[in-house]
Amino acid sequence: MAVPHDVADLGLAQAGVRRIDWAERAMPALRRIRERFADQRPLAGVRIAACMHVTAETANALCTLRAGGADIALAASNPLSTQDDTAAALVAEYGVSVYARAGMDQVSYDRNLATVLEGSPHILLDDGCDLVNIVHRERPELLPGITGGCEQTTTGVIRLRQMGAEGVLQLPMVAVNDTATKRMFDNRYGTGQSTIDGIMRATNAMLAGRTLVVAGFGYCGRGLAERARGMGARVIVTEVDPVKALDAVMQGYTVLPMEQAAAEGDVLVTVTGNRDVIRAEHLAQLKDGAVLANSGHFDVEIDLNALESLAVEVRREVRPQTDEYVLADGRRIVLLAEGRLLNLGAAEGHPAAVMDTSFSVQALTVAWLVDNSDDLTPGVLDVPDPIDVDVAQLELDALGVGIDTLTPQQEDYLHSWRV
């Protein structure tokens, strides 16, 4: 009998298995960790509640945790990213309780988040801080039984740090997003490629010779700008941080305030983790046919209410995940993936090779949380450096890449002030 679940169709399970197996081919580091976990069983008896994108890559991560002995309940972190066949396979073939359907409404989304917490979890795996928020606001009785958790998005870490600053965070939460490997692979290379993929799938538009505006020049924005420039686009960057803006200038990008950039952009993509990055005053400057997209976690970076109020007509689904808003002056504004996370709403998210690194860090961090539960205090914690190094070495081994090691003399030199 299948584990408890709420998925679209268990009949899709075999298609999901094929999708999961295909992704697994590009996830060698996670595969080695799974073998290690199967042998050592570091998560035996541990209950995990997860709010994550229900994709083949996530499935491989959860199968690794299952190999370590964990019992897992999963809810979707975005209704547009759920792969119904992957959800079915996780339930029918891999013993993971999944509560997710592609395109589900907000009521179902909230219900599923509540459901995965009903098992009184020991560990939270969050993607946007939703589970942590619910536990603190609505289910505080669960807090004493929770060892801690992991947060894998910039948006979620921002929320956690604010909770910590206000003294309300009552759990040890590890900022998986902030590791060097996660920022390099997931945020920079992953978001850069998968966002371009989402734009191309949704619009079939050519980027060469067009102007693409990147709002935010963090790791995600930097990766997107690099890849857009590689496609032949002219790239404009908008920023609020003088240091990041200077970095963009020194890398050869045009840096403008959004009010000016909006008038020049053919495609505008927000990747900030903040809200109202593109507002009514910016919408008023847009060209006819301008494309709006968001690769930040939540659908608040573009002011959708302002866009709706300015429109005299909305043409839904002119292409898959592409809506067209017609303004009073006849200008047409194109919105991709409902303003939600573009790279998962209109594409398939990061390549499996990218998620191999991120999920390897997360798997090892979960085991570390369990092993060190008695010594942890509430707050936002960094991933221990040895985990980051371990994962990087696993990836290099999988690629067949060798590196140098320090000689004893070099070690001594680096640890002494006497020369």
TrEMBL record:
Cofactor: NAD(+)
PANTHER family (UniProt xref): ADENOSYLHOMOCYSTEINASE
Keyword Chaperone: no
Protein name: Adenosylhomocysteinase
Pathway(s) the chain acts in: Amino-acid biosynthesis; L-homocysteine biosynthesis; L-homocysteine from S-adenosyl-L-homocysteine: step 1/1
Annotated Gene Ontology cellular component terms: cytosol
Broadest EC class assigned to this enzyme: hydrolase
Main location: cytoplasm
GO biological process: L-homocysteine biosynthetic process; one-carbon metabolic process; S-adenosylmethionine cycle
InterPro entries registered for this protein in UniProt: Adenosylhomocyst_ase-like_sf, Adenosylhomocysteinase-like, Ado_hCys_hydrolase_NAD-bd, NAD(P)-bd_dom_sf, S-Ado-L-homoCys_hydrolase_CS
Keyword NAD: yes
Domain of life of the organism encoding this protein: Bacteria
Molecular function, one GO term: adenosylhomocysteinase activity
Bilayer-crossing regions: none
Residue span, S-adenosyl-L-homocysteine hydrolase NAD binding domain: 187-349
Alphabetical list of Gene3D superfamilies matching this protein: Adenosylhomocysteinase-like, NAD(P)-binding Rossmann-like Domain
HAMAP family: AdoHcyase (MF_00563)
Reaction(s) catalysed (UniProt annotation): S-adenosyl-L-homocysteine + H2O = L-homocysteine + adenosine
EC assignment: 3.13.2.1
UniProt-annotated location(s): Cytoplasm
SMART domains assigned: AdoHcyase, AdoHcyase_NAD
